[in-house]
Design goal:
Mean pLDDT: 82
Distance between the termini: 13 Å
Low-confidence stretches: 1-12, 156-163
Structural class: alpha+beta
Protein name: NUDIX hydrolase
Order of helices and strands: EEEEHEEEEHHH
InterPro entries: DDP-like_NUDIX (IPR047198), NUDIX_hydrolase-like_dom_sf (IPR015797), NUDIX_hydrolase_dom (IPR000086)
Shape: globular
Number of strands: 8
Strand content: 25-35%
Pfam family, one: NUDIX
Cofactor: Mg(2+)
Keywords: Hydrolase, Magnesium, Metal-binding, Plasmid
Radius of gyration: 16 Å
Helix content: 10-25%
CATH architecture: Alpha-Beta Complex
Length: about 180
Amino acid sequence: MKDTNKNCCAAEEAAPEEMQQVGALPWRIAKNGEARILLVTSRSSGRWIVPKGWPMKGFSPRQTASREALEEGGVIGVLSKAPVTTYRYMKRLDNGANVGCRVAVFGLNVRGTLVDWREKAQRQRRWFSLAAAADKLDDRELSEFVRTLDAASECLEPPTGATGKKSALDEILMLRR
């Protein structure tokens, strides 16, 4: 079996002038059966984003996405085996330059939320409905992806508990597991 973790974006490689990042789209199903997405604020502008960061030496893209979710959002869970989407955005670097970034986003089915985490004092985190998360995200491509999740989740049956049926987001975000 081919290892897809070595190059997380083989299908959609970053352009030469783009920098590559990896991120996580943390999600869960609330007790009422509603799908929820966790967003965090950026440290610089305070806008709502998904946890993401630069690739780390010695870590696969999946491991990096998991670590970013833990550090930035204080959540742990089960990651999809491959990215569920990619999106582009403009990043302002510490030196003031703007650079294009392509982010490979892994789905993260959240299993635990920490009370204290590394960047708690630097960020806010909040659970949103799919529609509200799409509205809060400034990154157009990522927002459109979340809107497709919202539309698709309406077509799938909600989890029924003991029947063992998968939730709508399991069906969509964990397909590549």
